[in-house]
Amino acid sequence: MNITLATNIKTNYNGFNYLIELYYQTQKTNDSVIYFDFSDTNWFEANLSAILGAIVELCEYDGKTTSFINLKPKIKDILHRNSFLPDYRRTLAINKYNTIVPYKKFEPYSDTDFMNYVKSELLAKPDFPKHNKQLGKKINESIFELYENARTHGRCKQIHTCGQYYPNNTPKRLDFTIVDMGRTIKDNVNEFLKKDLKGYKTIEWALAYGTTTKTGNISGGLGLNIIFEFIKHNQGKIQIISSDGYWEYNKGKAKTYSFESNFPGTIVNIEFNLDDPNIYKLKEEVSRDNIF
Amino acid sequence: MERKTSKLNVKDIIGSDIAVSTDYGDILYKNIIEAFRQKKQVELDFYGIEIITTAFLNAAIGQLYNSYKSEELNKSIKLINISDEDILLLKKVIQRAKEYFFDRKKFEDSANIAVYGS
Fold first, then answer.
1. From the CB of residue B67, how many other CB atoms can be counted at a distance below 10 Å?
2. Using a CB-CB distance cutoff of 8 angstroms, which residues of chain B are in contact with residue A212?
3. Are A226 and B92 within 8 A, CB to CB?
4. Which residue does chain A place closest to B52, by CA atoms?
5. Of B18, B66, B70, which has the smallest distance from its Cβ to A115's Cβ?
6. C-alpha span between B101 and A212 (Å, rounded)
C-alpha cells in the first residue's frame, strides 16, 4: 500500500489530526508492506518523527513492514540527521554540533538509556541554556517527569522521543515530543472516575494539582501539574493529545478540541522558551527544619 | 540513649546523579525503611544529585507517610546537601503525600469536583 503524505505537516492541531488519520490508513490495509510516500511533502517538522515512529511501531506489531520513499532532499536530510531514517550513523558526528535532538525509542524500563540520551543530546548541546542553569534544570525536570508519566501511566511497549532546537528564532526555543502508544489518559481517567468524559476533559483533569489515577502506596498527581506551572512561567507552549482529546496551552490561553478519530496513545509536545528571563533560583534559603 | 545514624548517600544508592524514576525512589525508600527497622536515624545526603523529579520523591519520601507521621519523620530524618529548589519540590511532594494518605477517598471525591465544579 502506498500512502502519500500531506504537503505540510506541522506541530499543530491540523498536523496531529493528520497523523492520527495517517495511522488509521495504515490500519485499514491488509498489505504486508506500507510505503510512506513523501513526494508531495515540502515540510515535516523533525520532532514529529516521534509520532511517525510510534505509527511504525504499531504497523510492525501487526506484522507489516514500512518504507519511506520519494523524500525530497530537504526532508531526507532532516530525517537522516535526526536519526529517524536507518542509515543515520554517517551523520552523527555532525549532529553533535547542530540543532537536532535525535529520534529515539526506549523500552519502558530503560531509565538509564533515557538519562544518557538527555545528558548527551540536551545537556551537551551548545544551545542548551548554560547561562541560566536553573532554567536548564527546570527543562530537564520537565522532560524526566514526562518520561516517567508516559512509562507508568501508558504501560506501553516503547516510548518515542524526538526534539528540535530553533536557536535562530525569537525567542529561541526547544521543541520536545514524547509519544507512548499505551493506555490513553482518557481510558485511565474514565476508568478511575467511572465516567465517560471526553478526551480533552480527562487531560484537564490529569493536569490539575493532586489528581492522579494511582491508587497504591505511592502518591502522585504532581508531575504534569508541575510541568504545566513551569511552562506558564516560561511562556512556553504545551500540547497534549490523547485518544480523541487535544489540549493546548500557549501564551496564557488554553485551547481544547476533540479529534474525530482516537489516537491510540498519548503525545506530549513541549515548546520551551530558551530566552526565558525569569529567575528560577530562590532568593532566600529554605529551612530544612521540620520539613516533614 | 542516642540513636545510631545511618548515612544514606542518594547518589551511591541509586547509582546515578539523576534521581528521576519511581523505581529508584522505591530503592531509596526501602533503604530508609531498613534503617528505621534497625531503630536508626537517617542522614539523607543528596550530594552530587543534579536532577530530582516528583516521581522519584513520591516513591522515596512520600511513601513514608503511609506508615509514619510527620513528627516521627522530623525526628528521624536529616536532609543534607539538598538545594533550595529541590527542597521546595520535596515540600510539594510531602504536602501532596499527606493529603493523599490522610484520606484517599476524600481526595478521590475532590478529583470529581475538579472536573464537575460542584
1. 12
2. 100
3. yes
4. A141
5. B18
6. 13
A5 grid coordinates: 503524505
Q: Scanning every residue of chain A, which has its alpha carbon at the shortest distance from the alpha carbon of B76?
A: A292
Cell of A233: 512561567
Q: Cα torsion for B19, B23, B27, B29, to the nearest 10°?
A: 80
Q: Is A59 exposed, middle or buried, given 0-12, 13-18 or 19+ CB atoms closer than 10 A?
A: buried
Q: Which three cell numbers stand for residue A198?
A: 471526553
Contact yes or no for A161/B31 (Cβ under 8 A):
no
How far is it, in rounded angstroms, from Cα A175 to Cα A239?
11
- For A108-130, the pLDDT digits (tens) are 878 778 888 988 888 777 767 66
Three-state secondary structure readout of A187-219? HHHHHHHCCCCCHHHHHHHHHCCCCCCCCCCCC
- pLDDT for A88 equals 46
- Whether residue A202 is predicted with pLDDT greater than 80 in this model: the reply is yes
Among candidates B25, B74, B96 on the partner chain, residue whose Cβ is nearest the Cβ of A221 = B96
Burial of B1 (0-12, 13-18, 19+ CB in 10 A): exposed
Query: What mean pLDDT comes out for the span B21-48?
Result: 95
From chain A, the residues in CB contact with B20 under 8 A are: 111, 115, 144-145, 147-148
Contact flag A219-B74 (C-beta cutoff 8 Å) = no
B46-57 pLDDT, tens digit per residue, is 999 988 999 999
Q: How many other CB atoms are found less than 10 A from the CB of residue B85?
A: 17
Say if residues B28 and B10 touch (Cβ distance below 8 Å).
yes
Nearest residue of chain B to residue A207 (CA atoms):
B114
Separation of alpha carbons A184 and A267, rounded Å: 10
Instruction: Find chain A residues with C-beta within 8 A of B92's C-beta.
Output: 222, 226
With a cut of 0.90, is the ipTM above it? no
Tell me the whole-structure pTM to 2 decimals: 0.88
